[in-house]
Amino acid sequence: DGWGNDDGWDEEFGSEFEGLSYPTLTAYERGGVKVLFDFEKSDASSPTTAVMATFKNSLPDPLYDFSCKVAVPSHLDVVIGPPSTSTLRSGGGTMTQSMNLTRNSMGTPLKMRLMIEYKRGGKVVRETADVTDFPADL
């Protein structure tokens, strides 16, 4: 049938077309709010890393006017896309936001500060978190 083991196709077919994968990072987890980062790079030598941030609410209350601002050191540039929503529903609601992190010089560490703000029960909650435990090979 031409599709056996000796069909001439390399066993690794397709792997060169997939982006590099990295483990999911829990960037923040406090008070029922969790932020997960998933990463993608086109190739290992690229200075740019695409980050998809997923925000999760495990609280019994919805979180309104949810926003996450990001600060990075001067050796990094960050471009942040719009959030998928500004309200995190109660009991498992999620939203996503994309970011592109670019190193201005290779070999410098990835790190960022998250500034998270939302309203819960009419009160404004503001939190900051430093994220420094990025996968080493990013």
Can you give me a brief rundown of this structure?
By secondary structure, the chain is mainly β.
Describe this protein's structure.
With 138 residues, this protein is mostly beta strands. About 8% of the residues have low confidence. The protein has one domain: Sandwich (Immunoglobulin-like). Strands 1, 2, 3, 4, 6 and 7 form a 6-stranded antiparallel beta sheet that branches. Strands 5-8-9 form a 3-stranded antiparallel beta sheet, with no helix packed on it. The chain is built from no helices and 9 strands. Strand 3 and strand 4 form a beta hairpin.
* Name of the CATH superfamily: Gamma-adaptin ear (GAE) domain
Distance between the termini: 43 Å
* Largest sheet geometry: 6 strands, antiparallel
Helix content: under 10%
Q: Which keywords apply here?
A:
138 residues, 6-stranded antiparallel β-sheet, single chain, Immunoglobulin-like, GAE domain-containing protein, 0% helix, mainly beta, elongated, 3-stranded antiparallel β-sheet
Chart the SSEs and their pairings.
Layout: E1 20-21, E2 25-30, E3 33-41, E4 48-57, E5 64-71, E6 76-80, E7 93-103, E8 112-120, E9 123-131
